[in-house]
Amino acid sequence: QPARAVDLVEEESGAPGEEQRRWEEARLGAASLKFGARDAASQEPKYQLVLEEEETIEFVRATQLQGDEEPSAPPTPTPAQQKESIQAVRRSLPVFPFREELLAAIANHQVLIIEGETGSGKTTQIPQYLFEEGYTKKGMKIACTQPRRVAAMSVAARVAREMGVKLGNEVGYSIRFEDCTSERTVLRYMTDGMLLREFLSEPDLASYSVVMVDEAHERSLHTDILFGLIKDVARFRPELKVLVASATLDTARFSTFFDDAPVFRIPGRRFPVDIFYTKAPEADYLEACVVSVLQIHVTQPPGDILVFLTGQEEIEAACEMLQDRCRRLGSKIRELLVLPIYANLPSDMQARIFQPTPPGARKVVVATNIAETSLTIEGIIYVLDPGFCKQKSYNPRTGMESLTVTPCSKASANQRAGRAGRVAAGKCFRLYTAWAYQHELEETTVPEIQRTSLGNVVLLLKSLGIHDLMHFDFLDPPPYETLLLALEQLYALGALNHLGELTTSGRKMAELPVDPMLSKMILASEKYSCSEEILTVAAMLSVNNSIFYRPKDKVVHADNARVNFFLPGGDHLVLLNVYTQWAESGYSSQWCYENFVQFRSMRRARDVREQLEGLLERVEVGLSSCQGDYIRVRKAITAGYFYHTARLTRSGYRTVKQQQTVFIHPNSSLFEEQPRWLLYHELVLTTKEFMRQVLEIESSWLLEVAPHYYKAKELEDPHAKKMPKKIGKTREELG
Ligand code: CDP
Ligand code: MG
């Protein structure tokens, strides 16, 4: 049925595969061990929600977040309120009464720290006030940075609607690989990373009259770097206004950093929130989430629910489980709208979370951290917090970066709880014990700059002529070893010379808005005459893990379809194969449907590919194709990723340089092949250190692409002599 086909493709229900679920489950089990400590049983009365015969989770009411207002307001906006004009809504925001005062403060100070409860109107209103006040006269622009892409897009869309203009005209957004701005765009919402890149073309930000660094409390890597750069620019551009906006956290630090800039506080408007903890630790928080949402739904008065999970896969799994149970319960329960929100969610789907809930129904929004402070959804009364988030961590000794699900900080947990008290008194259900909250959560989240690799940022700073990184003005400096390793890696990639100066190739690498290793791979495609293929691989790697679609009822078909794309050599070639066949189909959505490929991901890959292709000329790489000689493609990839190599030893895979134990991800096409030498795109720590997107290589290629990095001796194979010759051969040799 073609109608259903369109449906499926358009919906992007992206059910995670069984395999993925398995890993997910194993991981969840591991993660929850952290909360496995005993509970100092609370004396508070027991609070139990009951859902027919289904299992239930027991919560105990333990604390209350103090609000500033009496709990009286109606839980959801009345239809009359919803119909109120946009201007009336604008006037109702907490920031509005302070409009004049705020504008005066901005006029009087070059740098102003603005602190206000989430949802008070900082992001959507302040740039508009500045616009109305004439800060965009003479073609000057206002930048407002967001650490998250979704926030930049959705906020820009909201502001465009409020101003009654088309998105991309006066108001627009700019995120990596997606520019929705034009010559006319004076209010520019952008990711912090994009403003960083603006420094490359306009080091003094001369076309901007105001820069608002928003969500400063998030302390994302790029925001932290922006602080240093903007502080510097502000010194020699006295007319530039700098605003640092933050939720109510840590604003004194920002003030001190900016030479004691004044802090403007927007008084909050917050209702009390009752906090409940589980009596005992939950073994599987995903399952516990689903049960709790249903418990809330059947036992609690009207009001929408916000659930915090850690990422796309988990969110999709939870949404699916919820929809499944609702379907089974049928008319026994009232309607429950289940809506996901995460970074890669297509924008039309994002918009749905902001639509008012129909009368009689309840909405549950299943979100990542993004809903903690970056986005405000009206009507939330209940927050469900499993207490986890996905966090990057980095080991500068081994150079290994991993993304792990870790318990969130107390500051995070309290931000999350606060989301329940915006429109009325709310409730926050924490899926961990009061004991765990007290004893196992860190106070605050460590700034990203201290737990990530810095290759990208160091390359950018070097391109901006900032040579002495050790003395860069950091709000919190990164670990010394991390900086050093970044310099070393950039040297190995040929981006810096032995004096630490930027090379020609380094300058080109900085031109490409991707990680240094990926840039290097693209540059290397010139030498191996395969830029067409490498562009595709780069684009497919950038859309990341959401290529294949695996609906529960067609698992076998989906798996067969996936295996059909396998090519000897590994996952990068599989990605290339998928894209090539899709392109041959005329970029057809029907083709995607038939082959269990996610159309949206492919469309995005196509966008990314086009943009990268547009930059090739700037980095002096010509278009060329390998004509089926995949060895060349694999060598070009190796030229970028020779840092990420592993070899098979008696006791499994070990990274070549650091001798770390790693494993091939079960979703990889090489999972069963177990080649002797391989490179990986990234490591993901779940139950183990998994290598995702792996490619079979030959050790001799490492000497070819990185002779300065590898010595022949360390690439010798200790077991090779003992192996019968044939087994030692690669598949190419065997034909
Ligand atoms: O930045 P801050 O957290 O202070 O508030 P904001 O993001 O400017 O939000 C102000 C209001 O705009 C809130 O009531 C949000 O619900 C609303 N908003 C929206 O309806 N749609 C968006 N995409 C963003 C904000
Ligand atoms: Mg905001």
TrEMBL record:
Q: What is its EC number?
A: 3.6.4.13
Q: What class of enzyme is it?
A: hydrolase
Which keywords annotate this record?
ATP-binding, Cytoplasm, Helicase, Hydrolase, Immunity, Innate immunity, mRNA processing, mRNA splicing, Nucleotide-binding, Nucleus, Phosphoprotein, Spliceosome
The reaction(s) annotated as catalysed by this protein in its Swiss-Prot or TrEMBL entry are: ATP + H2O = ADP + phosphate + H(+)
Location of the Helicase ATP-binding domain: 103-267
Tell me where it resides. Answer: Cytoplasm; Nucleus, Nucleoplasm
Q: Which domain of life is it from?
A: Eukaryota
Q: Which GO terms describe its molecular function?
A: ATP binding; hydrolase activity; RNA binding; RNA helicase activity
What's one GO BP annotation on this UniProt entry?
mRNA splicing, via spliceosome
Asked if Nucleus is a keyword of the record, the answer is yes
GO CC aspect terms = catalytic step 2 spliceosome; cytoplasm; nucleoplasm
List each copy of the Helicase C-terminal domain by range.
Answer: 292-465
Keyword Protein biosynthesis listed? The answer is no
Positions of region (Disordered): 66-86
Q: Could you tell me what this protein does?
A: Required for pre-mRNA splicing as a component of the spliceosome. Contributes to pre-mRNA splicing after spliceosome formation and prior to the first transesterification reaction. As a component of the minor spliceosome, involved in the splicing of U12-type introns in pre-mRNAs. Also plays a role in innate antiviral response by acting as a pattern recognition receptor sensing splicing signals in viral RNA.
The similarity comment for this entry is: Belongs to the DEAD box helicase family. DEAH subfamily. DDX16/PRP8 sub-subfamily.
Describe the subunit structure.
Component of pre-catalytic spliceosome complexes. Component of the minor spliceosome, which splices U12-type introns. Interacts with GPKOW. Interacts with TRIM6. Interacts with RIGI.
Question: Can you say what this protein is called?
Answer: Pre-mRNA-splicing factor ATP-dependent RNA helicase DHX16
